[in-house]
Design a protein that fits this description.
Two copies of one chain form a homodimer. Chain A has 294 residues and is α/β, with parallel strands linked by helices. Chain A contains ten helices and ten strands. The first copy, chain A, has helices at 37-49, 91-97, 107-118, 180-184, 186-193, 205-225, 242-254, 261-264, 267-270, 280-293, and strands spanning 4-10, 14-22, 25-33, 54-61, 102-106, 126-132, 136-142, 145-146, 229-233, 271-272. The longest helix of chain A is centred in the last third of the chain and has 21 residues, at 205-225. The two termini of chain A are 14 Å apart. At the A-B interface, strand 7 and helix 6 of A face strand 7 and helix 6 of B.
Chain lengths: 294, 294
């Protein structure tokens, strides 16, 4: 029997709700702007109410989130600067409205899980999905499940070597200045070069520097997580010409230290774009619903 | 019923073999220098042959290792520079000699598992054990199991910010110069300051710099793995006065970004020394035997 699932991609600017079985079978979809929590969740609940026979609902949300099942604030967004959303309860109103299993995780863990189930990470034990857009975030699966641990991963916020002679830009992160996100996000690109990255041609000097930082960051996650594949999504990675540069920088950064054919010989299949493209967000939410059903 | 296990701590300078049920019940032990593989494994097998009724044997070995069960070279040490040991088969000779489940993992994953079972990481889902000695390595557990993924983690080899004005030492790593190990291992301390770290008093300027690098490295693993606790072992961390400095540097590096009470309020219980001390290696090997039995 094929179950029908609800998926909510709860983003900071818009909510996308869908009903379906997977990325190739979305039977209904609705999107509305992220206004106040009560209003936005009201629209969400109204949408899902129109669809009978859901087996579970999955929520892939912007964070940071409380994912600890034994916490009184499980299912809440926690310390977001987004007005009105600090400590907003997402799962609670859905639980009250529907007597269904509710899956809940970060948008990036959802995206990783969607790619693992239907996309570029199928069958892998250990997978990293990294989105490089306005900000940088990442979701990691080990044993086919998102890592939670203390809270959840914050893949944009570790530090990298930053040669201020070669790149005097001080970094754009309000917390850490020149962490990975501070140096390499779409926002950092725009601030460093004074124009939006979409307007740069492929020979713009921004790209070599960008690939260098991404390569150093991938070295870090290869050393700390040893993923079997790395999927790079997000608006910045929409620049397809970045992939070969990033692969070369990653190899150069590792310098032969990790002796795996995936890195030394087949890096084209190791660092890859997402397979689900524009459906990644909603697919991730539906994948979380799958997992919630068990 | 309490099972009796064999544990082999296969180190680069010595092999330690033990029989017991856990760190508080080691019934026999033998140690011999790491000479050629055939000779050293011969001694190992002779030791275990003297003990009847073993339920499983665990091996915690120096690496890098092939841990992929479906690989033709599973159970081998792979690309070590140690003469004679490149591609040495560790598990094969033990399998031939004993009809027992054989657990096999890196020394640091073993140590993490030992601390998880009997020491400072009991009951946690996600745990990091980092050893800072002559070299730097780390083992991470997710869901109570070591992460393998592509190969295994290499926690000493990600890069950190390195202010060459403040610290002109170029780094000691032959692969990456100023990676974490290259900047902060015992070997790096000795090369930077021209003397062994054990000879420095607690007010030596080495320690503030050392704590800064370790704090930046812990920020990295907190962002990429989100461990519920971090255990710091190894000879350098034998300097107990480093712990408060490392905790403060970790908090400063994160700058309030990861809003968990473990970091903001209870960091004394979050970044801790190992509980098993000198028994960590053999305990790790016995813990791997436990896991192999299932």
């Amino acid at each position: 029997m094929t179950h029908l699932f609800g998926g909510l991609e709860a983003g900071g600017t818009k909510f996308v709700c869908a009903v379906g079985t997977g990325p190739d079978d979305i039977r209904a979809e609705a999107r509305f702007p992220t206004t106040a929590p009560a209003e936005t969740l009201h629209h969400t609940i109204e949408f899902f109410r129109q669809h009978e026979g859901l087996a579970a609902i999955g929520v892939a949300a912007f964070g940071p989130l409380d994912l600890r099942h034994d916490s009184p604030t499980y299912g809440h967004i926690t310390s977001t600067p987004k007005p009105g959303w600090m400590n907003a309860d997402i799962v609670g109103p859905l639980r009250q409205a529907f007597n269904l299993p509710i899956g809940f995780d970060t948008d990036v863990n959802g995206a990783a899980l969607g790619e693992w189930r239907w996309g570029a990470g199928q069958g892998l034990d250990t997978l990293l999905y990294l989105t490089i857009g306005t900000g940088i975030g990442g979701g990691a699966l080990v044993g086919g499940k998102p890592i939670h641990g203390l809270v959840h991963t914050e893949m944009g916020h570790f530090r990298l070597p930053h040669d201020v002679q070669a790149d005097p830009f001080p970094g754009a992160c309000p917390f850490h200045s020149d962490c990975f996100e501070g140096l390499a996000s779409g926002l950092a690109l725009e601030k460093r070069w004074g124009a939006k990255a979409e307007t740069f041609g492929p020979n713009h000097p921004a790209w070599a520097l960008e690939a260098k930082y991404i390569g150093l960051a991938l070295m870090t996650v290869i050393c700390t997580l040893s993923p079997q594949r790395i999927i790079l999504g997000g608006g910045v990675m929409g620049q397809q010409h970045l992939f070969p540069l990033v692969r070369a920088e990653t190899q150069q950064a590792l310098n032969g230290y990790v002796q795996s054919p995936s890195i030394t010989q087949h890096i084209d299949e190791y660092i890859v774009p997402p397979a689900l493209g524009g459906r990644a967000g909603v697919s991730g939410a539906i994948a979380l619903a799958h997992m919630a059903l068990g």
